[in-house]
Amino acid sequence: xxxxxxIVPEQPVLCLxxxxxxxxxxxxxxxxxxxxxxxxxxxxxxxxxxxxxxxTLLKLLAGLERPQxxxxxxxxxxxxxxxxxxxxxxxxxxxxxxxxVRDNVLLPAAFASRASEAERARADHLIETVGLSHAAAxxxxxxxxxxxxxxxxxxxxxxxxxxxLLDEPFSALDAMTRxxxxxxxxRIWMEERSTALFVTHSIPEALFLADRIVVLAGRPGRxxxxxxxxxxxxxxxxxxxxxxxxxxxxxxxxxxxxxVAAGDAVR
Amino acid sequence: MRRLLDLLPPAxxxxxxxxxxxxxxxxxxxxxxxxxxxxxxxxxLWDGLASGEFWPHIEFTLTATLSGYLLGSLxxxxxxxxVAESRLFxxxxxxxxxxxxxxxxxxxxxxxxxxxxxxxASKVVLVGLICFFPLLVNTIGGIRRADPDLIAMARAFxxxxxxxxxHIKLPAAASAIFAxxxxxxxxxxxxxxxxEFVASERxxxxxxxxxxxxxxVAVMFAGVVILAAFGVLGSSLMxxxxxxxxxxxxxxxxxxxxxxx
Lengths: 267, 261
Fold this sequence. Notes:
The complex is a heterodimer.
Chain A: E1 12-21, E2 31-39, E3 43-47, H1 54-62, E4 69-74, E5 77-78, E6 86-89, H2 101-106, H3 117-129, H4 145-156, E7 163-167, H5 175-192, E8 195-200, H6 203-209, E9 212-217, E10 222-228, H7 243-266
Parallel strand pairs in A: 3-8, 3-9, 6-7, 7-8
Antiparallel strand pairs in A: 1-2, 1-4, 4-5, 9-10
Chain B: H1 2-24, H2 38-50, H3 55-85, H4 87-101, H5 109-116, H6 120-144, H7 148-156, H8 161-198, H9 204-213, H10 217-245
GO molecular function, one term (chain A): ATP binding
Enzyme class (chain A): hydrolase
InterPro entries (chain A): AAA+_ATPase, ABC_transporter-like_ATP-bd, ABC_transporter-like_CS, ABC_transporter_ATP-bind, P-loop_NTPase
């Protein structure tokens, strides 16, 4: 990528402290006393069963919901609402059906008719990066599920965000497309060098993509485990067969099972 | 060629109805003061158009229908946007909208004639009132049903409220608004004709009314045919417009309409 960002390793860029969130005072809260520091440039997977508060955490970070208490800071500035330095991909493609692929990628800036030369060039570059140059002028109705999520990935990167939020972006895709897109996401992230938070309930997906896995579960959601994934990059689909991978996977699965049991006990 | 073939089945139906109608009104059939033969209807339609006798009536009805329709539709879309976007406005007016919506508007025709006179103005008001409510309800519903995930996405990308309204809610409501416009054009015609029935000196409704007094059933039928033609023309025009504007709904997503980029 053209812009090189100064990365100081191990320097937390995202700091969450004592976050608490509940919908309209409902008990128990969805998140309670959640604290997490994320180093700049890290790829962190938030892994956990449904209802563990993973998506809620991303909504708080995206500025779509406000926590009842606690603080969130990105690069030293508190997050009080949506910010340009944060890009997001959603579980559903959420593309505007009445706009072309190019306009959908440009959405965080302005549509093509209003966009600057630089913005248009950035959008075209991103569309090329996700392999959709041939589809730039198509409308979303003509895209497959995998293509639509690629557009979502490109759109997330439009403003060169410091922080990427990915809310189970591949969960609605078939297994083959999922693997291909995981590989592409790794490549794009290695090029852009942003900090990424990737919510998933798939252990292999978390292991394949992340430097660090945070297991979030229970009601209220809290961090059950926080582990590093010391597998070298770039990872390939063959990495999935490495013994280290298998060991980490079974360790996570044990944690996952106990967290589900704990979740049941709370209910 | 395909389009010609598509016209074949309805043409066959038309011929069958014509034949049955001719038979029923033929020798030993219904008397012509109850049901004139189709040939007589066609002839009186032709005579009325060729002699110029029908044209002032057609012009009057079209003027009343179109101006009332435009004003009523514009008011409906604007009010619909206000109700859908402002909770406060909604709380003030919505109960009354629901109440008036449930009322048959043609019952107001005599009152409106008293208020606005027997000329064009009263017909325009009645037409506007009749096509206002379906479009209002559709506009509100269309805007409210905009995909909340799309709205959350736009908010996450820091898009302001007016942008979300213009680029997400309004396009999302487009197909509901067009459905309201299509219903509206037919209702507008009903409004104009009812107004002309109650009190008027011109219009296709007046033509039918005065032909009734003279027991000129062929002219009555000619008037009905004219109104039917307007209705069909108007609603197919709206459908064609909808297909062009709301191009992303349906199966033609890969074919953007000409002129868009």
